[in-house]
């Protein structure tokens, strides 16, 4: 994996952050392919180049660490990519009078060192944490803060500041990042023809103009965005319930992206790439043919049941109503397990979530058990293997989540 470039004081050089620049023409096609790769390469499929060569839209990038060299088959060791959803209304389809820009959604994609499993960690926007000193977008430095709401970091110092903040919180090196807008969510859901979600009860939220019936619902366009943003219509009306609801959508999204119906349809692939290209900013080290090739090699063997969504553990804040404080003990256990690469089990789904059968089922990253048909040949005299399957570790009870292979349903608002 590419190393971060730091200055003499050991900090990531401020000149590498916050500065937006237009990509050079010869890299545009690589960035277009990369955008698609970030979204669909978990399938391990080979995407036809003709589906994106015609896209001429250039992509904004944010300066980041050094790029991956061309010719590498995969990224080395574990891989961490921060994915941030902006709530900026500027130039977007949604225009409700709100101004400014907050990181409405903050996700960390972690690929294990053996490249056999992936974990997506969702961080509550209401989490109160320490913010490190960040390079200011216009030059200079934003001073460190002892406690600030996580969703303010994007407005304070842009994507680089969010990356540095999550690095400090998790202890992981995060060299790659992407920022997507509201219109990107709308465009991608439209490109897929919608994402199917299960609703155990209706979801009604006047705050986001959302009114969905009970049953299987196909979400696309503005309705998909509303479903991802609602908090008053699900669980206890809080931020953690909203994350659990988002994980239902994301799990279904991954299942659909990995389906043959999506990957064999060049029109869907083209529209998906176009929606991403027009509504995303990437750290510049991701925007190269070398990174694209290495990313494809890194994630191509990850199966659905090895892609897990978890929520960063938290408690109600001791003195700020409606805010959250980190559960540091549970978080340390989670990231120690991720660093070790060992299989783990999520013991529960989130607030307001149930499996289709109505009973929450533990989620595990362990390889699925295989069964073998009875043999009709003579018994083998080979000594049976004594290899022991890896031990699966159960995550602390304060960490909820699910596998992308597990179909779950939203229960709507469960606490009034």
Automatic annotation (TrEMBL):
Gene3D superfamilies for the chain: LCP protein
Biased composition (Polar residues): 399-416
Domain of life: Bacteria
Biased composition (Low complexity): 359-393
Record's signal peptide: none
Sorted UniProt keywords: Membrane, Transmembrane, Transmembrane helix
Domain Cell envelope-related transcriptional attenuator: 103-259
Membrane-crossing residue ranges in chain numbering: 32-53
Record region (Disordered): 351-416
Family annotation (NCBIfam families): lytR_cpsA_psr
Family membership noted in the UniProt record: Belongs to the LytR/CpsA/Psr (LCP) family.
Protein name per Swiss-Prot or TrEMBL: Cell envelope-related transcriptional attenuator domain-containing protein
Source species of the chain: Leucobacter iarius
């Amino acid at each position: 994996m590419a190393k971060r470039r730091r200055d003499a004081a050991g900090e990531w050089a401020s000149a590498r952050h916050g500065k937006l620049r237009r990509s050079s023409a010869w890299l545009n096609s690589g960035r277009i392919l990369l955008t698609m790769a970030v979204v669909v390469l978990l399938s391990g499929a080979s995407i036809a180049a003709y589906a994106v060569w015609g896209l001429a839209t250039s992509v904004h990038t944010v300066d980041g660490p050094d790029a991956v060299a061309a010719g590498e088959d995969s990224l080395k060791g574990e891989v961490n990519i921060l994915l941030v959803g902006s709530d900026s209304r500027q130039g977007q389809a949604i225009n409700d009078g709100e101004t400014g820009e907050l990181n409405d959604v903050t996700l960390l994609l972690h690929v294990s060192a053996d490249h056999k499993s992936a974990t997506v960690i969702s961080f509550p926007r209401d989490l109160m944490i320490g913010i490190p000193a960040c390079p200011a977008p216009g030059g200079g430095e934003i001073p460190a803060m002892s406690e600030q709401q996580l969703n303010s970091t994007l407005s304070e110092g842009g994507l680089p500041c969010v990356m540095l903040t999550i690095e400090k919180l998790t202890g992981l090196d995060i060299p790659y990042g992407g920022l997507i807008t509201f219109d990107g969510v709308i465009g991608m859901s439209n490109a897929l023809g919608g994402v199917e979600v299960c609703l155990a009860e209706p979801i009604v939220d006047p705050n986001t103009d959302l009114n969905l019936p009970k049953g299987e619902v196909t979400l696309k366009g503005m309705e998909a965005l509303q479903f991802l943003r609602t908090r008053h219509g699900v669980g206890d009306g809080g931020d953690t319930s909203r994350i659990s609801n988002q994980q239902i959508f994301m799990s279904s999204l991954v299942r659909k992206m990995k389906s043959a119906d999506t990957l064999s349809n060049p029109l869907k692939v083209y529209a998906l790439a176009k929606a991403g290209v027009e509504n995303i900013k990437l750290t510049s080290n991701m925007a190269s043919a070398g990174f694209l090739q290495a990313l494809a090699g890194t994630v191509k063997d990850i199966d659905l049941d090895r892609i897990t969504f978890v929520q960063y553990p938290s408690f109600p804040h001791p003195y700020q109503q409606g805010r959250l404080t980190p559960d540091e003990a549970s978080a340390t256990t989670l990231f120690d397990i991720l660093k070790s690469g060992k299989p783990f089990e999520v013991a529960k789904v989130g607030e307001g979530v149930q499996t289709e059968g109505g009973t929450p089922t533990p989620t595990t990253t362990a390889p699925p058990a295989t069964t073998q048909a009875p043999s009709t040949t003579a018994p083998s005299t080979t000594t049976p293997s004594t290899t022991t399957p890896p031990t699966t570790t159960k995550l602390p009870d304060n960490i909820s989540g699910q596998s992308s292979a597990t179909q779950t349903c939203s229960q709507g608002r469960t606490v009034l």
